[in-house]
Design goal:
about 20% helix, single chain, 2 domains, alpha+beta
């Protein structure tokens, strides 16, 4: 359990992680947003993450992620190098807001978002039995990567034939991005001119 969650539970202290995990007090604006979110959705916010993300085209996005107390908080679900948390995500640069799951990890004393925004009915790293339009399945996730400012993409293999058949790459909605995949995300990078970093 993250130290910031323990402090929230034991002392009702709410922090904001910035710049990769440094802890700060919430600004007055952030406090108002927390109050509004909690009133609208009957969910408690236990931490805020504010970071800038560089997209593949070089643009920079500034985002705030408000982490909710949920069943994932009580029993954190490991996810790659972090854990899954339900959150309200505020894209300051684009003026957009959305709810979904993000993956966070401990860093420097606070938290940082390592990727994500997926919703509960979407594909995730533990998905099995996934169906993809135009491709006979079922499929399961073998690897996850991110594009742009943290959108997950998934490498899927056929559940029966595994790596003996070509794989596919889909987004978190299950929309096909690339088929006839034999070299994992290298095929995606080649097809779309994308550099994973």
């Amino acid at each position: 359990m993250p130290q910031s969650l323990k402090e929230y539970q034991e002392e009702d202290v709410l922090y904001c992680s910035e710049n990769g995990g440094f802890l700060y007090w919430l600004t007055d604006e952030q406090k108002l947003i927390v109050r509004d979110i909690e009133a609208q959705h009957s969910k408690k916010v236990w931490h805020v993450i504010r970071e800038k993300y560089r997209m593949s085209g070089g643009d920079e996005l500034e985002m705030e992620t408000y982490l909710f107390i949920s069943h994932f908080t009580e029993d954190p679900k490991p996810w790659n190098d972090g854990f899954l948390v339900y959150a309200f995500v505020r894209n300051i640069t684009w003026g957009e807001e959305e709810y979904g799951d993000v993956v966070v990890c401990g860093s420097i004393g606070g938290l940082r978002r390592i990727w994500g925004y997926i919703t509960m009915d979407e594909i995730h790293s533990g998905s099995h039995g996934s169906k993809v339009a135009g491709h006979i399945g079922p499929w399961y996730v073998t690897d996850v990567n991110t594009v742009d400012f943290g959108k997950p993409i998934f490498l899927l293999e056929h559940e029966e034939y595994g790596d003996e058949a070509a794989g596919i790459i889909v987004d978190s909605q299950g929309e096909l991005l690339l088929d006839d995949v034999w070299n994992g995300f290298d095929d995606y990078a080649e097809a779309f001119g994308y550099d994973f970093y």
